[in-house]
Amino acid sequence: MRLIEFKMERPGLVKASDEVHVIEREGAGSYSYIIDPAVAMSGCYAGRERIKSEKGMVKEVKHNDRGYYVIVEFDE
To answer: pTM for the whole thing?
Structure first.
């Protein structure tokens, strides 16, 4: 199992136990991921750290003074 954190701008778009689909975006030497449809975005990952799965399960949605964060578990 692999956990990835995504930044979400508004509350209530996903909840724990939701299955989500992610889209891979290729940048200059790195990859980032978006929970479809434009729910939240990950940080950047090097090629060797790419997510292999297209679907994951939301484990938790956290809120702090910097915003909302979605923790997604991938079966890798």
So the answer is: 0.92
